[in-house]
Amino acid sequence: MENYSKIMGIPVPKITMDYSVELLNNVIQQNKPELFHVVTLNPEITMSCQHDKQLRSIIDEAGLLTADGIGIVMVSRLKGNPLPERVTGCDLLIKLLETGNQNHWSFYLLGADEATSKKTSEVINRTYQNVSILGRHHGFFNELEEAKIVEDISSLRPDILVVALGAPYAERWIHKNKNKLNAKIAIGVGGSLDIIAGKVKRAPAIYRKLNIEWLFRLMNQPSRWRRQLILPRFAVRALLFKENKT
To answer: Could you name the domain of life of the organism this protein comes from (predicted)?
Structure first.
């Protein structure tokens, strides 16, 4: 049995949350010069990869893919090559903060609006007192500001660069700047800063356990219904997709 499950042609490693954190801990300890790009793969990115060759190459070059969303995991199970569990961007970020608190890791936060970015930094500093937030910047910047942000990150050399610019823009941004960032790890985390800051309420544990977090989000943010139409489309296309065995 392979150590990955193919989802619409993309090989997704069969790894748990704990193993993901262990792997990233090793990356930080090894202190290699090249950036390690983590992509939390969701149905939207997977669908976009079918017609966007540049995005697909970014995904193929990533250091680690995780299954972000129950849709990815359910398709793997229905196709008979199951992934062990979801490893979402938000959950992975929280686990990295917990581990970073034990190991005195440093972070840089990029994304969200200014108030949310500031509040997130305050919450992390209060909750994880051994973690260093070396710097932060909101996600609404122009090209001139972007150059300064990249320079700032490069000079600060964080262990982990957290990019909350939305998918797949975060993945493109990390890939475009990967040779200039001087971070050990970079990860796109979607709207995770909104959750940490308390701007968006996280689904209760029972919703997460039953894998219906999407339903809680839809009830609390009805405007998301158009975006969530991609989920049934993804499920049908992914289940009918003829995977190459090689």
So the answer is: Bacteria
Closest CA relative to residue 106, chosen from 182, 4, 220, 191:
182
Does residue 4 form part of some domain? Answer: no
Tally of domains within the chain:
1
Residue 188 domain flag: yes
The two three-digit tokens of residue 53, written as one number: 């060759």
* Residue 133: strand, helix, or coil: strand
The answer to whether 81 and 75 have CB atoms below 8 angstroms apart is no
Among all chains, which residue has been given the structure tokens 């936060």? 109
Asked whether 106 and 159 are in contact (CB, 8 A), the reply is yes
What is the residue-averaged pLDDT of the chain?
91
Helix ranges (DSSP H) in 79-141: 89-103, 114-127
Q: Does residue 77 fall inside a structural domain? A: yes
pLDDT value of position 206: 75
Domain, as residue range, for 104? 10-240
Half-sphere exposure of 183 (CA within 13 A, CB side): 31
Give the predicted TM-score (pTM) of the model. Answer: 0.91
